[in-house]
Specification:
This protein has 286 residues and is α/β, with parallel strands linked by helices. The protein has seven helices and 14 strands. 38% of the residues are buried.
Length: 286
C-alpha cells in the first residue's frame, strides 16, 4: 500500500470491532459503550443485544431484526443480528456500509483479539482488497481477566491462553502448545473447554505436579445473566482432580485456569482466592 489518501474516502464511516467483555454494562469500557451508542449500525448476536439493552447502550427492541431504532443521541440506528454462520457475509456488508458513510460497530464478546472477530475482519479486508475501509479495534475484558479478578491474583506472573477448539488446528498442535506452556512455567488459561478439556489436563499433568491448583470458572462477569445454570461460579481444585468436575464445565462460558508450583490458595473471612506470586519477591521489594 502506498499510504496515499484517496479523496473518495473522506465521507467513509469507520468499522469498529468492539469488545464488550462479558457483555454487561458494568464490565464494558467507556470507549466500547460510546462507540456502540453512536454507531449507525450495530452487528451483534441476540445474547449480546440483550446485554446491551440492559442500560440503554442500544435502544429497546421495538422492531424486527434489521429494523431501525433511535439512539440515545436521537439518531437512527440499525441493529443487525449476527450468528456464527454469517460472519463472512456480515463483514462484507459492514465494508459496504462504511463506504456508504456509516459507522458500524461489529460486536465481539470478550476482547476482539482473544479468539474474537478482529482477525476475520482483517482477513476479509485482505481477501476483498478492502484497503480503503477504516478499521478500529476497541478492546474489552477477556474471560481470563474477568475470571482472574474473581479468583484474586492468579495471573500476577507470566501467563498464556490456549484454545482447545480444533476448528482451525488439530489436536497434536494444541497438545504441543500445552506442553510448551507447562514446561515454561506459564499459568495457563484454557478457552473452549467443552472440547477435550480432560485430554488437555492430562497433557499438562505430564509436566506439572498433581497438587498444582486449578480453577474452573463460568460466565465470569455475567452474574445471573449468563447461561450457566448456577449463575457465575468458580471452583478451586487441583490438577490431579480437575477432570472430576464435569458438571462445572458448562460450555462456551467455561474457562479453566491451571496454576504453577508457585500458585496457592489464600483465604480470609470473606472467601477463598488463588494467588500466583510475582516470583520470590517480598512486600518491601515493591
Amino acid at each position: 500500500m502506498s499510504g496515499e489518501t484517496n479523496a473518495d474516502t473522506d465521507d467513509y464511516g469507520t468499522l469498529y470491532v468492539v469488545g464488550i467483555g462479558p457483555g454487561l454494562p458494568h464490565a464494558m469500557t467507556q470507549r466500547a459503550r460510546d462507540v456502540i451508542r453512536t454507531a449507525d449500525c450495530v452487528i451483534a448476536s441476540n445474547l449480546y443485544q440483550e446485554f446491551l439493552r440492559q442500560d440503554g447502550t442500544i435502544p429497546p427492541e421495538t422492531a424486527t431484526d434489521g429494523g431501525a431504532t433511535t439512539t440515545p443521541t436521537g439518531d437512527e440506528q440499525e441493529i443487525v443480528r449476527s450468528s456464527m454462520g454469517q460472519q463472512v457475509e456480515l463483514t462484507q456488508e459492514a465494508f459496504e456500509r462504511v463506504r456508504d458513510g456509516q459507522d458500524v460497530a461489529h460486536v465481539s464478546g470478550g476482547d476482539p483479539n482473544v479468539y474474537g472477530k478482529s482477525d476475520l475482519v482483517f482477513l476479509m479486508a485482505e481477501e476483498e482488497e478492502a484497503y480503503d475501509v477504516p478499521i478500529e479495534i476497541v478492546p474489552g475484558v477477556t474471560a481470563a481477566l474477568g475470571g482472574a479478578a474473581n479468583l484474586g491474583a492468579p495471573l500476577s506472573n507470566d501467563f498464556c491462553t490456549v484454545s482447545l477448539s480444533d476448528k482451525w488446528r488439530g489436536w497434536d498442535e494444541i497438545a504441543e502448545k500445552l506442553r510448551a506452556a507447562a514446561i515454561s512455567g506459564f499459568v495457563i488459561v484454557l478457552y473452549n473447554c467443552w472440547r477435550d478439556y480432560e485430554r488437555a489436563i492430562e497433557v499438562v499433568r505430564e509436566q506439572r505436579a498433581d497438587d498444582v491448583p486449578v480453577a474452573i470458572f463460568n460466565d465470569a462477569g455475567r452474574g445471573e445473566a449468563g447461561r450457566n445454570l448456577d449463575d457465575e461460579t468458580h471452583t478451586i481444585t487441583t490438577l490431579g482432580e480437575a477432570t472430576q468436575f464435569d458438571e462445572k464445565v458448562g460450555g462456551m462460558g467455561t474457562s479453566i485456569l491451571i496454576g504453577t508450583h508457585e500458585s496457592h490458595e489464600w483465604r480470609n473471612d470473606h472467601g477463598e482466592y488463588l494467588v500466583t506470586p510475582r516470583g520470590g519477591r517480598e512486600v518491601e521489594d515493591f
